[in-house]
Design goal:
By secondary structure, the chain is α/β, with parallel strands linked by helices. Helix content is 37%, strand content 20%.
């Protein structure tokens, strides 16, 4: 008998349909069209009306993994009223249908020169505003790395080194972005500051738990409640203050001492002309997954869209939940589908390859060992989990036994943060390719009779 997996499950179609429904609900083009429309010479964004007849030019700027699809949607909405623009997306995420909007590809999660050059040109495009232009800023996950314009005295190498240290430290995205906002000219409200006095509409696809505008892509159009002191505290919390490049230390300490201009804060009048709209989020994806699961006859529950913490610790909780369903039909009777959303972190101690979703799945394998008819599926909604071509992985009660039969020790692979080759050997990686969207991660727990 073939080991229980997505491929062998009689519920395979339902399992895959649930994942497809989650991604479809946050497809960037559809998300933009739901909240933005043109009615003659009026542009309507989330109920607010703008008179295009009073606007000289309409510019599209922004960055993120979903930037190409969002730009294409705005091109189709605005038509001949679109003057042009520039957006940055991740390598391999480009779309050919953005019209007069220039699309630049750059690196993620570590910034590169292409992203810096694009940000510099974007700043030039926005310079010298008269107040008679309209700027639409499209923002999605990945924008922190893709839109990189270092502050004075900070080099690209400094940004890359600092970002890499933060990524490996286990810091949350909010903590990471507190640092990155204070090393940038465009993050933390900087893009809105560059665009003044022109009005700005920020169209935001959220990839941060709770949808805090200041943290999504480091909040280029949002007021920044964090300070230089918060950024420095984050470095100290993860023992990075002595590891980051000297220019980063010097800048943050100068800011703590009051010697540098802070990022624009809540209440700053420059945000009176900024409208920020969340067009898609993890909750929308999770709710769509639950609805689809119910259509397939599964007893589905959305447990949370605020899951955070170390991936391997979250894995143990997830395994306990799905085993409880298998044993006692709680908190939902079988056949069941429990859905989580959020973003875990990984403290990298080894030299292996993987991502937070794969690490969570790997940590769950021993915890699920021997549990009958259960399945855990992790999904990075952008289709790329960490620096890999996988979106996540699938784990059943037989995964650990199958691994041992191949001579693979789950504990050893987990200790080395080496989830990718582990699941590749088992043929249990989830590969979607770039999805064009990015709204945090999803975790699906299935239990069948």
């Amino acid at each position: 008998m073939e080991p229980y997996s997505i491929r062998s499950s009689p519920h395979r179609d339902a399992i895959q349909a649930v994942q497809r429904a989650a991604l479809a609900a946050v497809e960037p083009s559809a998300a933009v069209h739901r909240l933005v429309e043109r009615r003659g010479e009026r542009l309507i964004a989330a109920g607010r009306s703008y008179d295009l007849a009073a606007v000289e030019r309409v510019w599209i700027v922004g960055a993120g993994k979903a930037a190409a699809a969002m730009a294409a949607a705005l091109h189709s909405i605005l038509g001949d009223r679109l003057s042009g623009g520039l957006v940055v997306t991740k390598y391999g995420h480009a779309s050919p249908s953005t019209g007069p909007i220039e699309l630049v590809e750059a690196a993620h999660p570590l910034p590169d020169e292409a992203g810096v050059a694009a940000a510099r040109r974007m700043a030039g495009l926005l310079a010298g505003g008269t107040g008679r232009d309209l700027v639409l800023a499209i923002i999605s996950g990945g924008g922190s790395a893709l839109l990189a314009l270092p502050a004075a005295g900070i080099s690209l190498a400094d940004l890359r080194a600092t970002t890499d240290l933060l990524l490996r430290s286990g810091a949350t995205i909010v903590e990471m972005n507190a640092v990155r906002k204070h090393l940038s000219q465009v993050k933390g409200g900087g893009l809105a500051r560059l665009a003044q006095p022109n009005p700005v509409i920020g169209l935001i696809l959220s990839d941060v738990v709770g949808d805090p505008l200041d943290a999504i892509a480091s909040g280029p159009t949002a007021p920044d409640p964090t300070t230089f002191a918060d950024a420095w505290a984050a470095l100290e919390r993860y023992e990075l203050a002595d590891q980051v490049p000297q220019p980063v230390r010097e800048r943050l300490l100068a800011g703590v001492q009051g010697g540098l201009l802070e990022t624009p804060k809540p209440g700053d009048p420059l945000f009176d002309r900024v409208q920020n709209v969340v067009v898609g989020s993890n909750r929308l994806a999770a709710e769509a997954a639950v609805e689809e699961a119910r259509r397939w006859g599964l007893n589905a529950l959305l447990l949370s869209t605020s899951v955070e913490g170390e991936a391997r610790q979250v894995a143990r909780v997830a395994a306990a939940l799905v085993k409880e369903v298998a044993r006692s039909d709680r908190p939902a009777p079988r056949p069941a589908c429990l859905v989580w959303g959020g973003e875990t972190t990984v403290t990298v101690r080894g030299t292996g390859r993987g991502g937070r979703n794969q690490e969570l799945a790997l940590a769950a394998a021993p915890a699920l060992d021997g549990a009958p008819n259960v399945l855990l599926v992790t999904l990075a909604t952008d289709g790329t989990d960490g620096p890999t071509d996988a979106a996540g992985a699938a784990v059943t009660g037989e995964t650990a036994a199958r691994a041992r039969a191949l001579g693979l020790d789950p504990a050893a692979y987990l200790a080395n943060n080496d989830a990718y080759p582990f699941f590749e050997a088992l043929d249990d990686l989830l590969r979607t390719g770039p999805t064009g969207t990015n709204v945090n991660d999803l975790l699906f727990l299935f239990a069948f009779r």
